[in-house]
Specification:
This protein has 144 residues and is α+β, with helices and mostly antiparallel strands. The protein has one domain (3-142). The protein contains 3 helices and 7 strands, in the order H-H-E-E-E-E-E-E-E-H. The longest helix is centred in the N-terminal third of the chain and has 18 residues, at 3-20. The two termini are 27 Å apart.
């Protein structure tokens, strides 16, 4: 096994480990470990994010991103050049009507039924660094 492929396997395992810490039904854990793992086998994973509320995940590759939504059995692939990032900071203009302090979104320009809409948000000043950290990773990946 080459160093590159072992590094790729480590990134895949790190992703699967992150998903395994979520409170998902057994069938969704199995879906990640069988279906998603097979779909991304051999891909050069740059990073990942998981949404602990929904169980969805985002896998960053060199030139694209993959969205996984277990409750729909949905795996979608989006080219990097079609992805954008927006950040709304409500700290200086007062909170918005939903009580949000900050919201950030990665989204794609694609048909409405196939759009990427990955969002992180916070309702507390304490959570702002987590949102900023996500945005920083996203922008680094977008600008590579």
């Amino acid at each position: 096994m080459t160093t590159e492929s072992s590094f790729s396997n480590e990134k895949l395992q790190a992703f699967l480990d992150s998903v395994s810490t979520l409170s998902l039904e057994h069938k969704f854990n199995e879906w990640y470990n069988v279906e998603v793992a097979a779909a991304i086998d051999g891909c050069k994973i740059k990073g990942h994010e998981v949404n602990s509320d929904s169980g969805s995940s985002l896998i960053f590759l060199n030139k694209s991103v993959i969205l996984c939504v277990p409750n729909k059995g949905h795996i979608a692939h989006y080219p990097r050049h079609l992805i954008h990032c927006f950040v709304d900071d409500f700290r200086h203009n007062g909170e918005n009507e939903d009580g949000l302090v900050m919201r950030a979104e990665l989204f794609s320009i694609s048909p409405s039924e196939e759009q990427l809409g990955w969002e992180v948000k916070c309702r507390s000043e304490r959570e702002v660094p987590d949102v900023q950290s996500s945005v920083s990773r996203w922008l680094k990946w977008l600008n590579e």
